[in-house]
Design brief:
It contains ten helices and 15 strands. By secondary structure, the chain is of the alpha+beta class. The chain folds into two domains: about 170 residues, 3-Layer(aba) Sandwich (Aminopeptidase), CATH 3.40.630; about 130 residues, Gcn5-related N-acetyltransferase (GNAT) (Aminopeptidase), CATH 3.40.630.30. The strands form three sheets. The protein has a seven-stranded mixed β-sheet, with helices on both faces. It has a six-stranded mixed β-sheet with strand order 7-13-12-11-10-8, with helices on both faces. The longest helix is centred in the N-terminal third of the chain and has 15 residues. The chain binds coenzyme A (COA). Coenzyme A (COA) binds next to α1, β4, α3 and α4.
Length: about 325
Amino acid sequence: MKILTYDEIDSQEAFMLNINALWWPLTPSRVEDLIKYDDRWSSDSLLYAVDKGKIASQVVGLRIPTKTADGEELSLGVAGVATHPSHTRKGLSTFLMKELHERSVNEGVRMSFLLTRSSFVAYPLYVKLGYRDAVDFPRCTKPLVRKKKPKKSILRKFRKKDVRDLDKIFERFSRDLYGHVLRQKNYFDWRLKISDSLKAMINVVETKDGVGGYIVKRQLGADIVVEEMVVPAKKNMDRMFREIECGDKGDYITVLPLGGKKQVNYVRSRGYMTDEHSWGKVMVAPLKKSFAYKEISRLYGFKDGKFSLLELDQF
Ligand SMILES: CC(C)(COP(=O)(O)OP(=O)(O)OC[C@H]1O[C@@H](n2cnc3c(N)ncnc32)[C@H](O)[C@@H]1OP(=O)(O)O)[C@@H](O)C(=O)NCCC(=O)NCCS
């Protein structure tokens, strides 16, 4: 069994594995764009276990800067874990992930994050490798109100020249948060380059003092899903919610308050139904035995609800 990187394997075979196992259309141009524009990616991010010239298993390792109570900390972000069905239960994912962990430790990285669901078959694999649930992905729902939207809208469509304001507002929003909040320079510039659908999903909060935030929202049939909200001032949140909670069709509005406990408490105060526990999990593992989970929890304020990993920062 050989360990190879993306430029050493058959990219079409890799595409087949990703589309079948993860519904992830990982084409060569997408990989090229990610390496070119997303600082978390590099040419050695994709690792493959190759058996007799065929891809048997894959893992993706990203170098992700994070913010902690003590300052900045580089972490490992694991994604794209997939083993070809003809090779499962032979220890290949375990083998590749251990290899990735070891490489990261050699670079001085102390911890690894991943996103999964407790209902996935991979969950016990991660637990065996030392990962523990860090935070849940809350999904909060409320019935849509049959009411005319306020005459003066606080939301408008995204315009190209908004990118700097959105970067600035995110910085303000994330000042008191820990976790995956260290976005690279000119974030929205490159983010829009690699996502065709994002532009139409961004709604800008426009106030008399200028841009007051943004939300990323999409229609799910006639229902509404708010995937990310970055609106620092409460009065703007109130106005925005009053507007988006109205619908002449559809049943529910769903919100993903992933920017710390403050967001969860806010949607709760608006009468959204929330689950204490959900299937979606952020898991974390210390990569060095001497580094305790308790210390990771302190660094990221898991218990205080300070940890943030918004939709656009997911990997
Ligand atoms: C999940 C997946 C990556 C596992 O790959 P793998 O190479 O078979 O994993 P390993 O052989 O290293 O398994 C290690 C341990 O994980 C657990 N595990 C793996 N597959 C499992 C399954 N289908 N059911 C229950 N436990 C499982 C077991 O504890 C296993 O140890 P054991 O075989 O000694 O009991 C593979 O089934 C897959 O590609 N699934 C589809 C894609 C996916 O769900 N990816 C994860 C997204 S977060």
